[in-house]
Design the sequence.
C-alpha cells in the first residue's frame, strides 16, 4: 500500500517534470533562506559575544595597598557568580606593559628613567559573564571591607560603551527573529502557492478519480508522497548550494567579524543541520500538498 | 434495480427534472433519448451522487442514494461504471494505469491488477496500447479505454452519457457493439444519447425525455421519435 502510494507519487513527480522543477526550485530558495538566517543569527551572536569579551572593568589600587589585601579582594571577586575571570596586574607588570607599549617613544622612556619610584597602580581586570552584570559586580566590590585600598574603578568610564553594546545586542536579536519569521512566512506562502498551482492544474484529474470511486485519502496520499519528494529534492539541492558557498565566503566573513568560521561550524554541526533542512523541507512539502489538495476534494 | 421516485431537480429557477418516475430492471439495456438539455445527464448524475435531487428519491436496489453519507459515496461509485462523451481519462496516466487505478481504489492486490487489467484491455482491443497515454490514442480507442475502466470492477450497472458524441459512425458502432456484449453478460446499461442512428440500431427499451419530463417509454424495440 505505502509502496504503491510512493511509486505513484514518484511517477507523478517525474511526469510533471516542469511543475516539479518549479516547486523544488522555490522550496530550495526557501530552505537556503532558512539556513542563511540561522547562519546570520549565529554570526551576530558570536560577534556580540566576542565584543563583550573585550569589555572589562579595571579596579585600580592605591599605591600603598599591599599584596595580601589585593589578593583577598581578588578571591572575593572571583567567588561572585556573575564574574567570568579576574586578572591581577601588579605594579611591576603594569610598568613593564607600559614600557613595552611605548618603547618607540623616547620622551616617555627618558621621563620614566628619571622617576625614582614606579608611578603605576596595581589593578584587577574583571570580566563578566554578561555585560549587564557589571554594575552589580562593581557594587559588590565597592561594598567589600577591602574597598579602602581601592583608588578608582573605571567602570563609570566604560558604562556608556557597555550599555551601548548591550542595546545593540538586544536589537540584533530582536530584529533577527522578526526578519527570520517574516521571510520564513513568505517562503512558506510562496511554496504553498506553487504547490497549489501544481495541484490546481490537475483538478480535472482529481474530479475523475472521484468519479471512478476513489476515496479522499486514496487521492490525497500520492500527492502527499509527491510533496515529500519536492521537500527531499529541495533539501538536497539547497545543501548542495549552501556548503560550497560557505566554503568560499566564510574566510572573508571571518576576517570581517573576527568571531567564528561559519563553514567549520556548519561542518561540525552537520549532523544537526542536514537532518534539520531535510525535515523542514519534507514538512513544508507535505503540509503544502495537504492543504492545497483539500479544496479540490469536494466533488 | 434502479428506481427514480417522483424526482425533481431545479437549479435556481431552472427546472431540469420534473416528476420523473422510472424503473429500470436488472440486465436491461435502456436508451434515454431527447434533445440536449432535456435532463438526460442530470438523471445519470443523480445515480452517481454528483447531484442530489431537489425532491424525490433515487434507489439502487434497496439503497437510497440520496441518503448515503458523503464518506460512502466512493463505495457507491465503485459499483457503477461510467462512460462519458469527453472520456474523462486521467491524462497523466497510461492506458494500463487508467484501468489499474479504478481497481486500485477498491483495494485490489498487485496480482489481481496484473492479471485483470491486460485481460480487459485485450477484450476492448487495446492490447497494443498498454503504455500509451490518452493523448496518443484515437477517439475510438480512448472511449474503449474508458469502457475498460468502467468494467474493471465488474459493476452491475454501466452509465454511458453520450459515449458516441465525439466519435465517427464506425467507431460509434464499435462502442455500441461493445456495450451490447457487456449487456449480454448481465450488466444493466443506461445509455443517454441524442444520436438517432444509434438508438434505432439498438432497439430495446427507449425512454424519451423532453424539458425534464418523461414523455414516452417504449419498452420493446423502441425508435427515436421526437
Sequence:
Amino acid at each position: 500500500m505505502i509502496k504503491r502510494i510512493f511509486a505513484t507519487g514518484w511517477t507523478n513527480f517525474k511526469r510533471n517534470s516542469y511543475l516539479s522543477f518549479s516547486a523544488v526550485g522555490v522550496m530550495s530558495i526557501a530552505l537556503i533562506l532558512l539556513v542563511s538566517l540561522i547562519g546570520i543569527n549565529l554570526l551576530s551572536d558570536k560577534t556580540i559575544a566576542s565584543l563583550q569579551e573585550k569589555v572589562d572593568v579595571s579596579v585600580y589600587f592605591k599605591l600603598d595597598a599591599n599584596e595580601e589585601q589585593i589578593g583577598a579582594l581578588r578571591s572575593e571577586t572571583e567567588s561572585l557568580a556573575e564574574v567570568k575571570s579576574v586578572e591581577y596586574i601588579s605594579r611591576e607588570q603594569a610598568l613593564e606593559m607600559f614600557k613595552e607599549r611605548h618603547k618607540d617613544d623616547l620622551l616617555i622612556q627618558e621621563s620614566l628613567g628619571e622617576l625614582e619610584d614606579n608611578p603605576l597602580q596595581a589593578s584587577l581586570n574583571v570580566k563578566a559573564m554578561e555585560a549587564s552584570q557589571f554594575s552589580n559586580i562593581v557594587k559588590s566590590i565597592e561594598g567589600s571591607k577591602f574597598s579602602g585600598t581601592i583608588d578608582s574603578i573605571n567602570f563609570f568610564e566604560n558604562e556608556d560603551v557597555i550599555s551601548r553594546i548591550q542595546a545593540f545586542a538586544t536589537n540584533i536579536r530582536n530584529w533577527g527573529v522578526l526578519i527570520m519569521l517574516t521571510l520564513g512566512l513568505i517562503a512558506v506562502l510562496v511554496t504553498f502557492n506553487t504547490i497549489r498551482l501544481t495541484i490546481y492544474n490537475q483538478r480535472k484529474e482529481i474530479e475523475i478519480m472521484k468519479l471512478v470511486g476513489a476515496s479522499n485519502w486514496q487521492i490525497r496520499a500520492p500527492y502527499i508522497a509527491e510533496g515529500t519528494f519536492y521537500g527531499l529534492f529541495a533539501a538536497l539541492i539547497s545543501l548542495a548550494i549552501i556548503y560550497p558557498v560557505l566554503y568560499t565566503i566564510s574566510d572573508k566573513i571571518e576576517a570581517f567579524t573576527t568571531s567564528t568560521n561559519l563553514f567549520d561550524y556548519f561542518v561540525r554541526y552537520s549532523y544537526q543541520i542536514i537532518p534539520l533542512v531535510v525535515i523542514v523541507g519534507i514538512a513544508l512539502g507535505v503540509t503544502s500538498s495537504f492543504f492545497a489538495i483539500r479544496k479540490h476534494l469536494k466533488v | 434495480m434502479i428506481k427514480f421516485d417522483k424526482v425533481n431537480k431545479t437549479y435556481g429557477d431552472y427546472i431540469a427534472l420534473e416528476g420523473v418516475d422510472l424503473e429500470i430492471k436488472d440486465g436491461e439495456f435502456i436508451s434515454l433519448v431527447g434533445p440536449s438539455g432535456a435532463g438526460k445527464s442530470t438523471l445519470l448524475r443523480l445515480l452517481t451522487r454528483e447531484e442530489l435531487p431537489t425532491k424525490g428519491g433515487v434507489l439502487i436496489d434497496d439503497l437510497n442514494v440520496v441518503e448515503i453519507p458523503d464518506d460512502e459515496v466512493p463505495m457507491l461509485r465503485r459499483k457503477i461504471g461510467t462512460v462519458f462523451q469527453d472520456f474523462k481519462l486521467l491524462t497523466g496516466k497510461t492506458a494500463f494505469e487508467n484501468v489499474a487505478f479504478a481497481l486500485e481504489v477498491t483495494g485490489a492486490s498487485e496480482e489481481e491488477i496484473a492479471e485483470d487489467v491486460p485481460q480487459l484491455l485485450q477484450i476492448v482491443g487495446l492490447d497494443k496500447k498498454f503504455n500509451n497515454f490518452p493523448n496518443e490514442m484515437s477517439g475510438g480507442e480512448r472511449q474503449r479505454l474508458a469502457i475498460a475502466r468502467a468494467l474493471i470492477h465488474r459493476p452491475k450497472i454501466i452509465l454511458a452519457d453520450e459515449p458516441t458524441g465525439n466519435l465517427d459512425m464506425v467507431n460509434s458502432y464499435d462502442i455500441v457493439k461493445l456495450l451490447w456484449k457487456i449487456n449480454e453478460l448481465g450488466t444493466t446499461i443506461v445509455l443517454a444519447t441524442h444520436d438517432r442512428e444509434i438508438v434505432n440500431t439498438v432497439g430495446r427499451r427507449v425512454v424519451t425525455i423532453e424539458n425534464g419530463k418523461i414523455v414516452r417509454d417504449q419498452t420493446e424495440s423502441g425508435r427515436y421519435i421526437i
